[in-house]
Sequence to fold (225 residues):
Amino acid sequence: MIRLYATTIPLSRSDDPAARKETTKLLHSAAWSLLAVSLHRLYPDLFPGSTADSLPAVSKGEHGKPAFADTSLPGFSLSHSGRAAVCALSDRGPVGVDVQEHREIRGVSDIDGIAARFFHPLEQELLSSEKDPAMRRRLFFTIFSCKEACVKMTGQGMSEDFREFYTVFDENGRPDRILDGKTGRIIGCPVLTDLQMQDAYGAYTLVSCSQEPAGVSGPEHIRVM
Fold:
């Protein structure tokens, strides 16, 4: 089972570099606080504290994936975007989670430019076939979140070439599995979850990913700041 938790921070949008850096710092802190609170609620005997500084020792993999040093403890993954922070907990091994605010694209001319750099050809073809602008934007963030959640789950992070694997969608248009572009091997099972953030200033996409199909609950909304 994968359990999802989410929180928002009441921040104002700003283009000032110093303000954006502070926002990122606060969201990072909120994500770790969310992890501590959710673990305390689920496993009060194992996690008697509910603050980030009460968490057990955390180690990092070769590419920076955080995990509890004690491998008997639940797997977890954190993400933040906009003013939302999310946490995923798994009792079935590694998990990855990614949240994306549907923000304006900066630094690249358009969605197609980013897709050309990071999407597998089949994903680019799927994106190009969607003519409705709103649906196309939603599809873009869904694909991107699937990729981010997958590399967090595998521990490869940004060292992985995002063009070397792709997301397969089911007949209802929801992500179903992630395949290696060369071998066709299943490398991840993504789940797209509706995320309704009361205080958020934009739409969000939330995707969790595990090695095998898993049930997903949540997200449960928790105030941590």
Observations:
- Helices lie at 17-42, 111-118, 121-129, 133-154.
- The mean pLDDT is 90.
